[in-house]
Write a structure and sequence with these properties.
By secondary structure, this protein is mostly helical. The chain is built from 15 helices and 7 strands. The protein folds into 2 domains: 4-141, no CATH class; 173-341, Intergrase catalytic core (hpI Integrase, Chain A, Orthogonal Bundle). It is globular, with a radius of gyration of 25 Å.
Length: 370
């Protein structure tokens, strides 16, 4: 059992994390200093939490291997390489916690990236000697949105585990309709519909303020980047964009505003808790996932907000939207991310091929062979 755990606190009205020793309740100074730096650097609470757990697991790994962070910096290249690859294997073997589900390679790599960030912070901070010798600097080139070519230097580690390709799960219209029929919550119905129509991330949608972010004449909803949302909902990568909703959904939205006006009059958030002791408080992403879990048990249909975003992307692809439009709608920085959202089914390929063959002759006429 690890002697370390991640704790949560508030720093300058922002959620922050620190690492505590269970044996004496002491706070680990250097990792906590780094975590505070990441929050003040304007990282999202979710990112801060992921980094905190990565460092917490690494502290346990150091304890188990009998090393100190300052000693790792003084190791040779080969010893450092063995140390960090050992940490990756330690993670994927599940020795960092007592859960039955094992993390994949990508998760382990992310934890190690957090560790490298911690070490680089220590070196820049000036109190620590040594170096991370296994990080090699290399230049990469890439094209911006306007086609302009850029180059920058990055530090990379050759020992990362092979990246596992993530194939996003998708849902379909029939499943969404069954979930909507099974839901007895107008609020939850509206959330599902809005994600399906706008492609917004769940935290983006939960950050919408109905008094400022909805244009009731144009029937549009805006995603705004804010750091002070009580439910910690915020636009990823500080993305701000706008989406038009259908006339039918706009009517449902207005009906929802009317039905819950007694709660909404006391808040600025579009989506709130509708019952219980936190009634009227801004809705959180965890509450949405719980609501979808209830619907799954009721219908046997598993759907997540992310799967509905995939549905949005594929419906637009089928409607012949340019991939640049889909990318912008989803708030993706890179086209490659959007491409992973687009699923082409076998039936679609067969139908497309039949349509092509119906309108085009074969490459070679059999008459020339007879």
């Amino acid at each position: 059992m690890s002697d370390f755990k991640v704790m949560e606190t508030t720093v300058r009205n922002k959620t922050a994390y620190y690492i505590q020793r269970c044996s004496d309740f002491g706070i680990l100074r250097l990792p906590t200093k780094y975590l505070k730096h990441k929050i003040l650097e304007n990282r999202s609470p979710n990112t801060g939490r992921r980094i905190a757990y990565g460092l917490c697991y690494y502290m346990a790994y150091l304890q188990e291997t009998g090393n100190k962070a300052t000693e790792v910096l003084m190791m040779s290249y080969f010893d450092q390489n063995a140390h960090f690859t050992g940490f990756l294997n330690w993670i994927v073997e599940g020795r960092h916690n007592d859960r039955t589900a094992l993390p994949n390679n990508n998760t382990a790599n992310q934890y190690l990236q957090s560790v490298f960030g911690f070490y680089e912070f220590l070196l820049i901070d000036g109190d620590t000697k040594g170096d991370i010798k296994v990080l090699e600097e290399r230049g990469i080139g890439y094209s911006g949105t306007a086609g302009v070519r850029f180059c920058r230097n990055i530090k990379s580690f050759k020992g990362y585990l092979p990246k596992e390709e993530h194939v996003g799960r998708i849902t379909d219209k029939d499943s969404l309709e069954k979930l909507l029929e099974a839901s007895d919550s107008l609020r939850n119905k509206l959330i599902i519909i809005l994600i399906a129509e706008t492609g917004f991330r769940i935290n983006e949608l939960l950050g919408v303020r109905y008094t400022k972010d909805i244009d009731y004449e144009k029937k549009t909803i805006k995603v705004k980047f804010r750091e002070d949302n009580k439910n910690e909902a915020r636009a990823k990568n500080a993305e701000e964009r706008e989406a038009r909703i259908s006339n039918e959904t706009f009517e449902i939205l207005n009906y929802y505003l009317s039905e819950y006006r007694h709660l909404l009059n006391k808040t600025k958030y579009l989506f709130v808790v509708t019952q219980g002791r936190t009634k009227g408080e801004p809705l959180t992403a965890n509450a949405v996932y719980s609501a979808l879990g209830v619907l799954e048990r009721r219908t046997g249909i598993k759907v997540t907000p992310h799967m509905i975003r995939h549905y949005f992307a594929n419906e637009r692809r089928k409607a012949n939207w340019d991939i640049a439009l889909i990318q912008k709608s989803l708030g993706h920085k890179h086209r490659s991310t959007t491409e992973k959202y687009l699923h082409v089914e076998d039936d679609e390929m067969i139908d497309a091929q039949e349509e092509f063959l119906a309108n085009n002759k074969g490459l070679y006429d059999i008459g020339k062979l007879i």
